[in-house]
Specification:
- The protein is of the alpha/beta class.
- The longest helix is centred in the middle third of the chain and has 17 residues.
- The N and C termini lie close together (11 Å).
Length: 215
């Protein structure tokens, strides 16, 4: 199993980081807690040739604009309902998918840290069983230290994104925890209309980790 947790404040590039690695997979299961399925589908489908399934815990109500591959969780306050919805989709998708979970912070609005950690553990076990991969995001400084640390313990690779404002905007990526050794551990990256541009050693490392199960 390849798993990556991306931590960063809003606007640092967490979702764009997920987009960076979508072309490496034929099947994508996108779990959204912060945007509607329609928004995710409008963003991904014109730009990526993937078989896309979406589990939407943000919308709460199914609309005519949703597709048959949009699973709407009507009561995200019930974590069991969220788990069942994800499980049903993964049963249909099969093996070798990328699960993109954006964002864990959306669940932490409704649920205690221990419940979310247990929920994440079950997802990570399922991903490993399915020979799949996962990218998860967490909003930095939105939670206390206990919550951020408890969530981080679940993941093999943790990447932190930072945005600094001086005379211009500068963005930095930091490898907080890794399954293997990689340099540099801290570097600058850029975002433009074409997407996110990472230092090649870091990009290659993340790709290798996500594809680790397929070697």
């Amino acid at each position: 199993m390849g798993d990556v947790l991306i931590i960063g404040e809003p606007g640092t590039g967490k979702t764009r980081m997920i987009f960076k690695f979508l072309p490496d997979f034929d099947k994508v299961v996108w779990i959204t807690t912060i945007k509607s399925a329609e928004v995710i589908r409008r963003t991904i489908e014109p730009n990526f040739d993937v078989d896309l399934w979406i589990v939407d815990t943000h919308t709460w109500v199914r609309r005519s604009t949703h597709t048959e591959r949009d699973v709407i969780v009507s009561n995200p306050i019930n974590l069991n309902e969220v788990s069942l919805a994800i499980g049903r989709v993964l049963d249909l998708v099969g093996e070798g998918y990328l699960l993109a979970f954006d964002s864990i912070s959306g669940l932490l609005l409704y649920h205690a840290t221990q419940r979310v950690v247990h929920f994440l553990r079950n997802i990570l076990v399922r991903i490993e069983s399915d020979k799949a991969s996962g990218i998860f995001t967490l909003v930095k400084n939105a939670h206390d230290v206990y919550t951020e640390t408890s969530v981080s313990l679940m993941f093999s690779n943790i990447i932190e994104l930072e945005r600094r404002f001086d005379d211009s905007v500068k963005r930095y990526i930091k490898l907080v925890k890794t399954f293997g050794y990689i340099e540099p551990e801290f570097a600058e990256f850029t975002i433009d209309s074409e997407g996110i541009h990472l230092p090649k050693p870091i990009e290659d490392f993340i790709r290798d980790q996500l594809k680790r199960t397929f070697a």
